[in-house]
Amino acid sequence: MVSLKFLTEVYELIGEQGYAISFSPAKQKNFLMYCNGNFIGGLFDEALYFVFTDRVNEMLGNPESEYRGYSTTAQHRMLRCPLELGKQALKTIYTEKFEGSRLVYDMTYTSIGASVLEDFYDDNVVFLRFCYENGLLKKSPLDKKSRIIRTVYIKSDLTERGVKYFYLLLRKFLVFYDNKGKTDLEKMLNRWLGSFQENADSL
Question: What would the CATH number be for the domain defined by 4-100?
Fold first, then answer.
């Protein structure tokens, strides 16, 4: 059984911008817990639990896991977490389980000068090829005929270098538009990426 006081305490302790916490009732007046709509743990018998992940387990000192859930027939392997480590555990588990699926680019996005996807296709070919050849994407985004394989990219598609530079480059790309074709896109991409790298090196 979980009291309203304890639920409120946990909510105020671990919830913050970017990590929207919500709860749903479970059996015996306990609660399942979600972050940004993703199941991450629960409150059981006045204690905070997170679903088992290797990094959270290591962070907590490798405690013995327990099986908790909505009912005795719907159980998940979980780790009991001290309240003072709740916020750290939340961020760790969210990064480990869900951050890789975060959307980073959807080609159907409508940008300046590209009211429909077809208007922007050739520029996307140049952009995606450049990102792959410069080590920002893990896999080639084009087939052997230079056709785009898919239109949606998530964080797990990025290399470590891509995590640093892809979105910065994407923002420049989406506002880049020269309807007279006088400015070479690949030249601009090289210039932008070089600038980002120089700024990073100077920090």
Answer: 3.90.1150
Structure-block tokens of residue 108: 């159907």
Domain parsing of the chain, residue ranges = 4-100, 102-202
Q: How far apart are the first and last CA of the chain?
A: 51
Nearest to 11 by CA among 114, 3, 20, 2: 20
Reported pTM: 0.55
Distance CA 58, CA 17 (A): 26
Task: Please tell me what DSSP assigns to residue 27.
Answer: G
- DSSP summary character for residue 64: P
Q: Apex CA 171: angle with CA 170 and CA 176, to 5°?
A: 95
- The predicted-structure confidence for 25-46, as pLDDT tens digits, reads as follows 999 999 999 988 889 999 999 9
**pLDDT tens digits, one per residue of 36-72:** 888 999 999 999 999 999 989 999 999 999 999 888 7
